[in-house]
Amino acid sequence: QVQPVESGGGLVQPGGSLRLFCTTSGFTFSSVFMSWYRQGPGTERELVAGITNTGRYTNYADSVKGRFSISRDNAKNTVYLKMNSLTPEDTAMYFCRTVWRTTIFWGQGTQVTVSS
Asked: Residue 108: pLDDT band by 50, 70, 90 thresholds?
């Protein structure tokens, strides 16, 4: 069974940093594109960052470019999201997403709250 599991969220002050983790199982991790999405209060879920199966190519939402960094370790079946210079606007539930055999799989999410 394909199951992404996120962790690493929490409460952080503006300007602070967090590193999110998404560990997966049930499929060949090294063959799939992985991505992070987020959904803030009263907003639609939006793409934050994506990374190709080898990790060679990445893409980012304009709102996080230069502050967030996505990476992966195929030996550990894990994708990471390092978030720096956090602002209250980054407050959201962060989700890991993948597509395996035409089916989209989401994790349960990890909450990130940026507040003083």
From this structure: very high
